[in-house]
Request: fold
Amino acid sequence: MMWTLFFIQLGVALIFLVLGWLILFKKAYGLISNFHSRPDEEKKQLIQNGYPKNTGKMLMMTGLGMLILPPLLFTGFAYALEVQIVFMLVILLGGFIYLSKYEVAAKRKKSYIISSSIFIITIGFVGVLTYIGYQDFQLVQKADTFEVTGVYGDEWRYEDVKRVELLKEMPKVEVRKNGFGMPTMSKGHFIVKGYGSSLLYIHKGKAPYLYVEVGDDQLFINAESKTDTQKWFEQLVQKTELNN
Reply:
């Protein structure tokens, strides 16, 4: 999985580098969005202002940065992927704001407004998703049901529980179907080796892991504290035994 991410990011970096090089050194200005559809007079002004040249530089800078950052994936740094994504977004979206200064005078203000709005909306959206992804969850046990709180949470009846186990190690997670796969946490629907489609609510590297088979669902959940996970297990076993 790590090597797959590495080669994907390497490929994206090379695309940016090639595009930037073609624009900057080969004057392939047709690669710039909407450049060819502009009136000839605007094209001349843009070239005089340095718009194509600086577009090529911005793309090459993005590509070079993305070539330098992928090795972080192999350092054990938990937020390597997030750093690379933020870098790409800031350089690209911030670059488009910067490029507005090289626009033709009549369209410069509009370009600043549009590019700045896109920057704010995109960064805000990514920020909200990251916040939701890192929100913690709890296993709340009630009289007849237990609930997992937070995004992708749900509620199940004790009488539907078929199996409860405390695992020393988390089985291999093969594919994410629909969920958050953060560096330190996974929440949502995943394919787990030997178990198939499962709901995960796990803090990575925080053994043990509670496995619950209930109804048609399979759950893997743990707390940041080993003591809390053990407590959830004991309470769940007690509740299910009382209802058998």
